[in-house]
């Protein structure tokens, strides 16, 4: 249109949409889903209840929740042919790559979900992905551990079912540990949405071309994988393990993080919006103490994390830049205590963020948002004539 283009790298000061789903206040460290505080929801709600709230805008009645869960249970299978795709991966494949690929492959077995425009068809796609995505995530883990692939147990709750699909051993019954189930429920709630973060914006922009929900979610998984985003929860544990191996000397790592020549960053610290403590990190830190205590687990990495946090909060490089622990800093310590391997941490983040991605996609489609297509500031060559190859040097 030739109008004035303002450059805003990383969209630091650009609003991409109007949204009624999640409210963040970065200065005060406030996070609310549809007006409910994250503290209230993490303490009192079930993850499926929060998924319903984020997607449809209201806390469900018992009857609405039961119907929602039943509709999901009815879709909690994946076409057996999908296992052939999984077979094609090496056992060493990173689970995020496996899950992103399998999620877009779902389209081949659910062609009616290619593009949906009616609310009724959207609902069908939504319950399908909420049902099938956890199966694919559990399959990605069991591929790595060489265990048989399993489906859910429809007698269980949504979160308990995820645990059973992930951990049930072939020849044993699986007993749900309420401490583990409650810890995972809380973690998934805390990860459920975060307004226009990198992966949610990715889901929105892919969905804005009407590419359909499954491939939009697959794109969200790909964006989340990056260590600057959801991949940080795996990178944090690798960093903390490194500090432990190194004799527990956090100062050396903090020095590296300050060195502009060194690409190393203090993983799990800093945030585009929060310039205060990430409210989720506060809850997860407290929950880490409780869960490890209840499970009788001593993890020296937790003490290293607390020591690193203390030092960073007293260091003017980090204080000046308002770098606080974010959601990824303590979450891996709980995942590990729940028996989840490090390579699966970001898959757990994706399982939690799935309802948020769905809610953002649905709102974008219902509001008939235009296709996302930003402009640029051109800095390339001016017009120049073609030169024959034998005249080039
Ligand atoms: C998530 O957006 C979301 O909401 C994401 C998320 C969600 O729920 O969806 O909250 C989940 O992704 C949490 C963030 C996980 N990532 C990490 O923990 C990786 C480490 N963090 C950084 O890479 C960084 O803090 C980001 C990516 C989180 C934010 O990057 P920004 O906003 O682009 O900030 P920046 O890179 O411009 O940094 C500002 C300054 C720079 O120093 P100066 O150039 O001003 O001197 O702070 C420094 C940076 O070098 N800095 C860090 C740092 N983070 C920023 N220095 C050392 N260690 C860090 N972690």
TrEMBL record:
<dbReference type="InterPro" id="IPR036969">
    <property type="entry name" value="Citrate_synthase_sf"/>
</dbReference>
<dbReference type="GO" id="GO:0036440">
    <property type="term" value="F:citrate synthase activity"/>
</dbReference>
<comment type="pathway">
    <text>Carbohydrate metabolism; tricarboxylic acid cycle; isocitrate from oxaloacetate: step 1/2.</text>
</comment>
<keyword id="KW-0808">Transferase</keyword>
<dbReference type="Pfam" id="PF00285">
    <property type="entry name" value="Citrate_synt"/>
</dbReference>
<dbReference type="InterPro" id="IPR002020">
    <property type="entry name" value="Citrate_synthase"/>
</dbReference>
<keyword id="KW-0012">Acyltransferase</keyword>
<dbReference type="InterPro" id="IPR010953">
    <property type="entry name" value="Citrate_synthase_typ-I"/>
</dbReference>
<dbReference type="GO" id="GO:0006099">
    <property type="term" value="P:tricarboxylic acid cycle"/>
</dbReference>
<feature type="active site">
    <location>
        <position position="328"/>
    </location>
</feature>
<feature type="active site">
    <location>
        <position position="271"/>
    </location>
</feature>
<comment type="similarity">
    <text>Belongs to the citrate synthase family.</text>
</comment>
<dbReference type="InterPro" id="IPR016142">
    <property type="entry name" value="Citrate_synth-like_lrg_a-sub"/>
</dbReference>
<dbReference type="InterPro" id="IPR019810">
    <property type="entry name" value="Citrate_synthase_AS"/>
</dbReference>
<dbReference type="InterPro" id="IPR024176">
    <property type="entry name" value="Citrate_synthase_bac-typ"/>
</dbReference>
<keyword id="KW-0816">Tricarboxylic acid cycle</keyword>
<protein>
    <recommendedName>
        <fullName>Citrate synthase</fullName>
    </recommendedName>
</protein>
<dbReference type="InterPro" id="IPR016143">
    <property type="entry name" value="Citrate_synth-like_sm_a-sub"/>
</dbReference>
<dbReference type="GO" id="GO:0005737">
    <property type="term" value="C:cytoplasm"/>
</dbReference>
């Amino acid at each position: 249109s030739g109008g004035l283009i303002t450059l805003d790298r990383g969209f630091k000061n650009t609003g991409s949409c109007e949204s009624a789903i999640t409210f963040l206040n970065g200065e005060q460290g406030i996070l609310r889903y549809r007006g409910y505080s994250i503290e209230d929801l993490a303490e009192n709600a079930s993850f499926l209840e929060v998924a319903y709230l984020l997607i449809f805008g209201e806390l469900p009645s018992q009857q609405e929740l039961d119907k929602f869960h039943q509709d999901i249970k009815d879709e909690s299978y994946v076409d057996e042919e999908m296992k052939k795709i999984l077979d094609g991966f090496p056992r060493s494949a990173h689970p995020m790559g496996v899950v992103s690929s399998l999620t877009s492959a779902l389209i081949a077995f659910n062609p009616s979900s290619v593009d949906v425009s009616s609310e009724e068809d959207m609902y069908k796609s939504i319950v399908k992905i909420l049902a099938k995505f956890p199966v694919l995530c559990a399959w990605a883990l069991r591929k790595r551990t060489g265990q048989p692939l399993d489906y859910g147990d429809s007698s269980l709750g949504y979160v308990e079912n995820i645990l059973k699909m992930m951990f049930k051993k072939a020849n044993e019954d699986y007993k749900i540990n309420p401490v583990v189930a409650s810890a995972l429920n809380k973690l998934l709630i805390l990860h459920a949405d975060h307004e226009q973060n990198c992966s949610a914006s990715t889901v929105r922009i892919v969905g804005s071309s009407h590419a359909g929900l499954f491939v939009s979610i697959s794109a969200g998984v790909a964006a989340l994988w990056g260590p600057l985003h959801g991949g940080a929860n795996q990178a944090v544990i690798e960093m903390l393990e490194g500090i432990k191996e190194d004799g527990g000397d956090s100062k050396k790592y903090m020095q590296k993080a300050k060195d502009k020549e060194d690409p190393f960053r203090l993983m799990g610290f800093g945030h585009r919006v929060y310039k205060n403590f990430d409210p989720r990190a506060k809850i997860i830190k407290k929950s880490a103490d409780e869960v490890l205590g209840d499970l009788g687990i001593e993890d020296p990495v937790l003490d290293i994390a607390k020591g690193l946090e203390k030092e960073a909060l007293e260091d003017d490089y980090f204080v000046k830049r308002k770098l606080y622990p974010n959601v990824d800093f303590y979450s891996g310590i709980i995942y590990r205590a729940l028996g989840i391997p490090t390579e699966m941490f970001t898959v757990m983040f994706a399982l939690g963020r799935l309802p948020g991605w769905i809610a953002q996609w649905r709102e974008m489609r219902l509001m008939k948002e235009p296709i996302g297509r930003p402009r640029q500031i051109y800095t390339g060559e001016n017009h120049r004539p073609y030169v024959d190859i034998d005249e080039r040097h």
